[in-house]
Amino acid sequence: MKKNLNIIIIAFLFSAILWISITLSEEFYSTINLPLRVIDAPSGYTVSTDLPGNISVKIKGIGWRLAGISLGSESYFNVSAKNDSGVVLSNLYANTINNTWLSSDLSVIEISPDTVSFVIEKTIVKKLPVIPDLNIDFKTGFGLSAQLTVTPDSVNVSGPKSLINSLKGLKTQSVKLSQLDSQTRVKASFENSKLVTDVPFAEIFLDVQRIVDKTVDNIRVEVIDVPADRDVVLIPNSVSCLVKGGINILGRLTENDFKAYVHYRDVLLDSLGTVQPIIEFPENIEIVTQRPDRLRYIIKKFD
Question: Is the pTM of this model over 0.90?
Answer without folding.
Answer: no
